[in-house]
């Protein structure tokens, strides 16, 4: 755990503050003078007491608080929450947070390239390092391994209650789960928790070849960044000393055999630079600036002292190269140049027609900038919480946008969408947006855009001079054209989808006719062959094969009538739901029994339905086929099919649950799950299976939904069949 975060005993974090200022999104409070750790507290809107808005507070009111972490801007200003102001409602004082316990949470925010913040179900935040994520190997990016919004299960690996830090580990839990499954498959009683080592999971990251006795002095006032980078460096075999300022650098150099220095550019001063330069020249210690600020400015400062520069997030391969050689390659300092065609290319992956419209958006931004003397502009859309797509831009480098896109959730772009209010400020106070700003821009203006009552888009404009009222009004006059582009884009997507299904319908109508015509003569031919074989024992195996072939051809013949069956919702013939599902599961078992363990939990009684079989068979086959595909290569794969009766939901009383222990779905996959023409199977998939399956069930007022999914631990889908209880017969 880090020592550079302010340790405060847990009991002392329960305190009362006095309100000094009130705004819709944040309340500031002064803390008692006898509280030695901080002078002020910041209470954000999502940490207000339950059922209270900012209108309910008044100046000088006393508010019970629980002190959280210090803000990065001011060490005397701490974040706080009023939701945990009492011990009995505070998870830090309960048994919910225990080392070795399995917890569930959601990925909410990236910490540079080293890890991700996980919001646990009890509201506490934990840190997940990249080395504790399954699949992490050297060169893998955090964004390739885990997505914002992913649901995860993890073990609590370490806790520091004085600094409110929790370290999580998924890799260790996955390994433990594998051992449990192996014991289960061997039909042996599985040992308890004492059967497992409490040592952290071994990282799959190979140790890099760095010089022996490498000792790095890391100077940075961002505790999350310094902790994560220090962990990475230790994995490489380096010894690391961290510091939050430059004051004690001379002492560090004397007490430790420092071989390299990583220095936060923001902490540097001319006096410190001269001191460090003299010391490093005497000791021949290489120095690298690390910063998230404008590259050109930092590069200039670095070259002045013959030092090197690395932008945040730090590229670990380049850092390793520096540790081995003592200098950085030139491309690490000089930003990559791009031609105009690359600059204007849309970052948003879409069809050709959609890209044309997106290009028109970039041209519109260029026109606005020319008319209003703006240096650059950016148009983004929030696809889901924490994830933004870039729809258009002007005057910016594509590579810089790609590098900073994952951090947009922590910028004024997200704040403008959340609040619906415009934000105007200096560029150097805009956080991550400072990285994408042109070098000569000084001011930024961010505002949101609403379409059809939904506010999920934001625009940012950059300017050398302040944004006055006339300039803002001139830009807002372009809003109707922006809305027209959005409307045109949505219409284009709708027409493309309609054309796809119109073509599909035309093809299917011909296919149904051909299938019906081709299978009709096969059935009597197979019957004739069975009679020809007779009843002799030596022909029994052949007759059995003909019987199976006849059954499958009859199935194909029946599928040709699916459309008629769906129109005719009520049938006289009753079908047993258990028998129907058992037949389909048996079909999959015969082909995948060696690699997958199948388990069927039938309905408690033999339910019979008056629905056409196709409305159950087609979605179920698709779900089982998807589950089998995503279990490929997994040891001890398992699929559980459960039939349940839910009288408490009379509109959909019969549920069929399909659960697997595969890799689970990412947040991005969840948002696109039932969209047409989107598949995770590459060339093997069409992207139509789940879309068609859901539409089949909805055509009879049923539903297909994702019940639950956890990364690396599996998913559960639910088919809800829409019969009234009067339509569902029970045979004893």
Automatic annotation (TrEMBL):
Pfam families assigned to the protein according to its UniProt record, in alphabetical order: HATPase_c (PF02518), Response_reg (PF00072), S1 (PF00575)
Its EC number(s): 2.7.13.3
Domain Histidine kinase: from-to ranges: 510-725
Enzyme class: transferase
The organism's place on the tree of life at top rank: Bacteria
Domain Response regulatory: 215-327
Keywords: ATP-binding, Kinase, Nucleotide-binding, Phosphoprotein, Transferase, Two-component regulatory system
Transport found in the keyword field: no
Keyword Kinase recorded: yes
InterPro entries documented for this protein: CheY-like_superfamily, HATPase_C_sf, HATPase_dom, His_kinase_dom, NA-bd_OB-fold, S1_domain, Sig_transdc_His_kin-like_C, Sig_transdc_resp-reg_receiver
GO biological process: phosphorelay signal transduction system
Residues annotated with 4-aspartylphosphate modification: 264
Molecular function per GO: ATP binding; nucleic acid binding; protein histidine kinase activity
All residue ranges annotated as the S1 motif domain in the record: 100-171
Catalyzed reactions: ATP + protein L-histidine = ADP + protein N-phospho-L-histidine
Protein name: histidine kinase
């Amino acid at each position: 755990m880090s020592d550079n975060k302010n340790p405060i005993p847990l009991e002392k974090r329960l305190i009362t503050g006095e309100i000094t200022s009130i705004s819709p999104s944040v309340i500031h409070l002064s803390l008692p003078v006898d509280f030695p750790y901080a002078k002020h507290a910041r209470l954000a809107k999502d940490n207000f007491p339950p059922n209270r808005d900012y209108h309910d507070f008044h100046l000088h009111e006393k508010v019970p608080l629980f002190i959280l972490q210090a803000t990065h801007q001011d060490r005397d200003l701490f974040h706080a929450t009023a939701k945990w102001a009492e011990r009995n409602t505070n998870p830090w004082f309960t048994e919910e947070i225990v080392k070795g316990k399995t917890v569930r949470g959601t990925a909410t925010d990236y910490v540079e390239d080293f890890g991700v913040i996980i919001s646990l179900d009890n509201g506490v935040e934990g840190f997940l390092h990249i080395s504790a994520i399954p699949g992490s190997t050297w060169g893998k990016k955090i964004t390739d391994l885990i997505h914002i919004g992913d649901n995860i299960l993890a073990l609590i690996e370490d806790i520091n209650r004085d600094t409110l830090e929790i370290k999580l580990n998924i890799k260790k839990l996955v390994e433990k789960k594998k051992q449990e499954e192996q014991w289960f498959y061997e039909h042996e009683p599985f040992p308890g928790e004492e059967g497992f080592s409490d040592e952290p999971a071994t990282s799959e990251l190979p140790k890099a070849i760095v010089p022996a006795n490498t000792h790095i002095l890391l100077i940075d006032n961002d505790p999350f960044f310094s902790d994560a980078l220090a962990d990475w460096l230790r994995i490489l075999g380096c010894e690391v000393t961290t510091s939050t300022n430059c004051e004690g650098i001379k002492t560090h150099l004397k007490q430790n055999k420092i071989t390299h220095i990583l220095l936060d550019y923001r902490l540097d001063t001319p006096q410190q630079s001269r001191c460090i330069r003299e010391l490093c020249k005497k000791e021949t210690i290489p120095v690298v600036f690390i910063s998230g600020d404008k590259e050109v400015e930092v590069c200039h400062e670095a070259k002045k002292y013959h030092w090197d520069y690395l932008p945040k997030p730090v590229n670990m391969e380049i850092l390793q190269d520096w540790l081995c050689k003592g200098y950085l390659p030139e491309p690490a300092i000089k930003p990559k140049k791009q031609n105009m065609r690359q600059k204007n290319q849309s970052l948003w992956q879409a069809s050709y027609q959609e890209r044309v419209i997106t290009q028109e958006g970039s041209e519109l931004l260029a026109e606005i900038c020319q008319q209003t003397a703006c240096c650059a502009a950016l148009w983004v859309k929030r696809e889901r919480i924490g994830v933004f797509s870039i729809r258009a831009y002007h005057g910016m480098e594509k590579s810089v946008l790609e590098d900073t896109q994952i951090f947009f959730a922590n910028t004024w772009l997200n704040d403008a969408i959340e609040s619906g209010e415009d934000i105007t400020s200096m560029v150097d106070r805009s956080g991550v947006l400072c990285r994408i700003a042109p070098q000569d821009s000084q001011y930024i203006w961010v505002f949101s855009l609403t379409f059809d009552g939904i506010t999920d888009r934001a625009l940012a404009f950059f300017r050398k001079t302040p944004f006055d009222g006339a300039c803002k009004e001139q830009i807002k006059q372009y809003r109707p054209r922006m809305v027209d582009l959005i409307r045109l884009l949505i219409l284009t997507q709708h027409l493309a989808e309609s054309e796809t299904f119109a073509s599909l319908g035309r093809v299917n109508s011909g296919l149904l006719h051909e299938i019906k015509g081709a299978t009709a003569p096969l059935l009597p031919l197979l019957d004739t062959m069975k009679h020809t074989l007779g009843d002799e024992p030596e022909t029994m195996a052949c007759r059995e094969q003909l019987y199976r072939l006849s059954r499958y051809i009859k199935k194909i013949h029946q599928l040709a009538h699916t459309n008629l069956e769906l129109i005719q919702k009520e049938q006289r013939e009753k079908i047993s739901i258990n028998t129907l599902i058992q037949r389909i599961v048996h079909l999959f078992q015969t082909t995948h029994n060696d690699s997958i363990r199948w388990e069927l939990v039938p309905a408690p009684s033999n339910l019979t339905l008056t629905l056409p079989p196709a409305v159950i068979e087609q979605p179920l086959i698709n779900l089982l086929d998807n589950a089998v595909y995503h279990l490929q290569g997994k040891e001890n794969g398992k699929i559980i099919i459960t039939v349940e009766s839910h009288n408490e939901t009379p509109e959909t009383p019969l549920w069929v649950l399909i659960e697997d222990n595969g890799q689970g779905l990412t947040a991005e996959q969840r948002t696109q799950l039932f969209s047409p023409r989107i598949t995770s199977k590459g060339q093997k998939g069409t992207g139509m299976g789940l879309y068609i399956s859901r539409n089949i069930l909805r055509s009879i007022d049923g539903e297909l939904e994702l019940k639950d999914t956890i990364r690396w631990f599996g998913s559960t889908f639910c088919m809800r069949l829409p019969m009234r209880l009067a339509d569902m017969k029970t045979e004893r």
